[in-house]
Design a protein that fits this description.
There is one protein chain. This protein is an all-alpha fold and 224 residues long. It has a single domain, classed as MetI-like (MetI-like fold). It is 83% helix and 0% strand. It has 8 helices and no strands. α3 packs across α4. The longest helix is centred in the N-terminal third of the chain and has 46 residues. The radius of gyration is 21 Å and the shape is flat.
């Protein structure tokens, strides 16, 4: 590798990393938090089988899971202005990533809720708990413990998916890299460099996932 390329990589590292810390990570974290709120509500509606809302929840999941994420970004950012709704790139990305991840996470949480033995619900009712108390004290803690690994994987996938936000002009890591490539014409080294940075982010999240799983396992043994 030539000295010129090494110099470009050294100079570009912080120029790529800073958008990662100021745009990619905030975009992923905000979207994931909102996605969890959406997913929990959608999963509970289906779990309890609320009339009408259950059908709406299934329709939402069907639409989001059945269409590409990039198309969803284009519809919100480039399509909504046709109806007089103009959104900035960053809020557009948050809306789309939240709704997209929320649909997938909803199915994960719904499956975890349905995996809690019915006998535990009945036991809660027998000791005088209300439905909300049963959900809060018995069902949700077990369901979230079961869903934690899959939800963590969703977060890791979301961090990588934020690269698609470059298509709607969000200045995150991939777009920052594309701008440097357009000036230097060193595509391969720079795209490899941004790939390594994404890998570093994913590695940290994977480590945190392991820490979280061990913590939840320890709490489960203490309660047991």
């Amino acid at each position: 590798m030539s000295e010129r390329v090494l110099g470009i990589l050294a100079d570009s590292f912080t120029k790529i990393l800073i958008p990662g810390l100021t745009a990619t990570i905030p975009l992923a974290v905000i979207s994931f938090v909102l996605a969890l709120i959406i997913a929990t509500a959608v999963a509970l509606v289906q779990y309890v089988r609320v009339p009408v809302l259950t059908q709406l929840a299934r329709f939402y999941v069907w639409i989001v899971r059945g269409t590409p994420l990039l198309v969803q970004l284009y519809v919100v950012f480039y399509g909504l202005p046709d109806f007089g709704i103009v959104l900035d790139p960053f809020p557009s990305a948050i809306i789309v990533f939240s709704l997209n991840t929320g649909a997938y996470a909803a199915e994960t949480i719904r499956g975890a809720l349905e995996g809690v033995p019915a006998g535990q619900l009945e036991a809660g009712y027998c000791v005088g708990m209300s439905f909300l108390q049963v959900m809060r004290r018995i069902v949700m803690p077990q369901a979230l413990r079961t869903a934690f690994p899959a939800l963590s994987n969703e977060l890791i996938s979301l961090v990588k998916d934020t690269s698609l936000a470059a298509n709607i002009t969000v200045l995150e890591m991939l777009m920052a890299t594309q701008q440097i490539v357009s000036r230097t014409y060193e595509a391969l080294p720079l795209y490899l460099e941004v790939g390594v940075i994404y890998l570093l982010f994913s590695t940290v999240l994977t480590w945190l996932q392991g820490v979280g799983e061990r913590w939840l396992a320890a709490r489960g043994m203490e309660r047991g």
